[in-house]
């Protein structure tokens, strides 16, 4: 019996693979993965005018009402199709393309979609808008015409023949073929009960539950935040198709059967009916397996009652706030304006922070760093183009000679002199303390442990060189709870009190970078030094529970960095996020950040980076 079951499963597997392969319209041997082209497509999209804050990622398959062949109905395929779409914050392309039997054509299709998305705007009509965008793109870049025609000529034979379709669907198919050959020539498309066969050369309208950034502020404030685990290191899952449904409590309805007809179980069953409110470890895996998600929103009543936010600890266990908080603006890229007094930043001190000495495992490295940085305190440097000095400045003499030959002689000093240099600079370090820093790198190290060690060694090095510096940490829970941990101000000494505050740090909450950078910029800009360095240590991109997610958070952080540069500061980001190359160049500039590939090297690399950034 077991043997027959195994044979049946084996035969069934062979039949499934055979019928699926025969019914599929794709060419698996020529498949191209988005992951292999994602970096180059992002560069192409932004080079042709696409917004830098737009996230490029994989799109999930979309269910379309297609007319399938008998073979496809038997195989159960072609019910869903991955299509490309974009909106102001996202560009979603199919996770893989196997539309053409040629790999080069599939790669070219990816590039065309990126170019079309860079030129696209809000979609009001699927057919007319795609024609208009295509025509404008080909008119602006005539070199693309041959590539576009090659894609069209290769695609038309793969589409269903109009002669084998019902009249309404055939008319729509002919109109689409005409629109592909001559973009802009079709103004009115025939109606059809069935969707046309997927058109990979065009963009589709966004299909999302709701725009979280367009949600009203009241809704975002009322809904409770749900802490989700960050995506796995293997890659980001494509977005799910979703719909908003009304909450059904199951209390209504009419009983339409007789209860005495139900069978009963009279024997005792040893069943534990205790409620289990622990975290479901398989929830993420189950969500990945689902193609369609239904979400309901439960509105809380406006009446009296006790409202608890379980994300925040009680006042007895939380860090110690001081002051009434600081109101700060926030950049809304949709309005292209700063929203004044939108964020409330609360300065805080770590609770139960007792003075402590430097941990023993950091003592040897701290001694070595102190010796290295003490040399910078008494560092002597050569000053060029001096009217008198101990050495001849050969470069200044060569410049003088060339200018004299060309009749443009300018008086300049021709000597070099060794003099004591004065380090006229100040530094403020801002550390990310969000819940993601609680992640383990291995069995012994967490990200927060490395950040604590980095702050301690950074303080030892800068106290040795004598540069004024300040240390802060930050996290957030929506816009009215941005937490700024004060570890050391410019006026305070670096001593055991500061070391105790650093070692008392605890990770939690989220990462509203813009508000923290703005407050740090104000503090640093008030210093009298000429050179001012603002360092940010983080392990991920900006995010929060409300609308501060995706492009909104990236754009606000970028605007905060621009404001810091206008104040005369030098912002620089140090990260251990391997995906930082996708968003940090836009936020901090190409030369405004560095990636630490081995996070365990962060405590040692941070003082060295400071030394490199502050070299005259």
TrEMBL record:
Annotated ranges, domain VWFA: 424-613
Protein name (database record): NorD
A Pfam entry, by short name: VWA
Organism: Pseudomonas flexibilis
Region Disordered, residue ranges: 203-247
């Amino acid at each position: 019996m077991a043997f027959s079951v195994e044979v049946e499963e084996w035969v069934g597997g062979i039949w499934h693979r055979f019928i699926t392969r025969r019914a599929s319209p794709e060419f698996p041997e020529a498949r191209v993965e988005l992951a292999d082209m994602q970096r180059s497509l992002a560069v192409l999209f932004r080079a042709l005018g696409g917004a830098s804050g737009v996230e490029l990622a994989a799109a999930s398959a979309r269910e379309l009402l297609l007319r399938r062949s008998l073979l496809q109905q038997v195989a159960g395929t072609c019910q869903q199709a991955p299509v490309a779409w974009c909106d102001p914050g996202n560009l979603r392309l199919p996770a893989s393309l196997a539309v053409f039997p040629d790999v080069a054509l599939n790669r070219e299709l990816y590039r065309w979609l990126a170019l079309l998305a860079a030129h696209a705007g809000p979609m009001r009509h699927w057919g007319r808008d795609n024609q208009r965008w295509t025509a404008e793109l080909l008119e602006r870049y005539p070199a693309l015409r041959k590539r576009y025609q090659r894609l069209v000529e290769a695609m038309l034979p793969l589409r269903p023949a109009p002669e084998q379709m019902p009249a309404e669907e055939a008319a729509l198919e002919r109109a689409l073929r005409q629109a592909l050959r001559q973009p802009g020539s079709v103004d009115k498309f025939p109606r059809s009960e069935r969707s046309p066969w997927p058109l990979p050369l065009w963009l589709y309208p966004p299909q999302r539950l709701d725009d979280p950034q367009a949600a009203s502020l009241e809704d975002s404030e009322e809904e409770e935040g749900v802490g989700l685990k960050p995506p796995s290191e293997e890659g980001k899952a494509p977005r799910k198709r979703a719909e908003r449904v009304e909450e059904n409590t199951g209390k209504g309805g009419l009983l339409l059967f007789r209860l005495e007809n139900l069978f009963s179980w009279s024997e005792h069953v040893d069943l534990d009916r205790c409620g289990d409110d622990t975290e479901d470890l398989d929830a993420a895996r189950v969500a990945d397996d689902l193609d369609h998600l239904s979400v309901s929103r439960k509105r809380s009543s406006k009446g009296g009652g006790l409202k608890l936010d379980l994300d925040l600890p009680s006042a007895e266990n939380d860090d110690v706030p001081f002051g009434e908080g600081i109101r700060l603006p926030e950049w809304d890229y949709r309005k292209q304006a700063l929203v004044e007094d939108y964020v409330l930043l609360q300065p805080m001190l770590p609770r139960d922070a007792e003075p402590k000495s430097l941990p023993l495992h950091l003592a040897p490295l701290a001694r070595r760093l102190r010796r290295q940085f003490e040399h910078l305190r008494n560092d002597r440097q050569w000053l060029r183009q001096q009217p008198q000095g101990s050495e001849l400045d050969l470069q200044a003499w060569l410049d003088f000679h060339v200018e004299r030959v060309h009749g443009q002689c300018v008086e300049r000093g021709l000597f070099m002199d060794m003099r004591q240099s004065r380090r006229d600079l100040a530094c403020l370090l801002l550390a990310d303390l969000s819940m993601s820093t609680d992640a383990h790198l291995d069995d012994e190290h967490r990200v927060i442990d490395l950040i604590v060690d980095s702050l301690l060694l950074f303080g030892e090095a800068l106290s040795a060189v004598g540069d004024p510096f300040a240390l802060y940490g930050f996290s957030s829970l929506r816009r009215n709870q941005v937490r700024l941990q004060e570890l050391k101000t410019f006026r305070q000494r670096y001593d055991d009190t500061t070391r105790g505050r650093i070692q008392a740090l605890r990770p939690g909450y989220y990462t509203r970078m813009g508000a923290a950078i703005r407050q740090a910029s104000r503090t640093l800009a008030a210093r009298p030094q000429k050179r001012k360095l603002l360092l940010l240590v983080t392990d991920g991109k900006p995010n929060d529970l409300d609308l501060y997610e995706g492009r909104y958070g990236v754009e606000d952080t970028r605007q905060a960095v621009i404001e810091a540069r206008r104040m005369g500061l030098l912002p620089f980001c140090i990260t251990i996020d391997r995906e930082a190359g996708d968003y940090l160049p836009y936020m901090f500039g190409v030369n405004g950040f560095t990636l630490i590939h081995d996070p365990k090297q962060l405590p040692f690399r941070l003082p060295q980076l400071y030394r490199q950034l502050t070299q005259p």
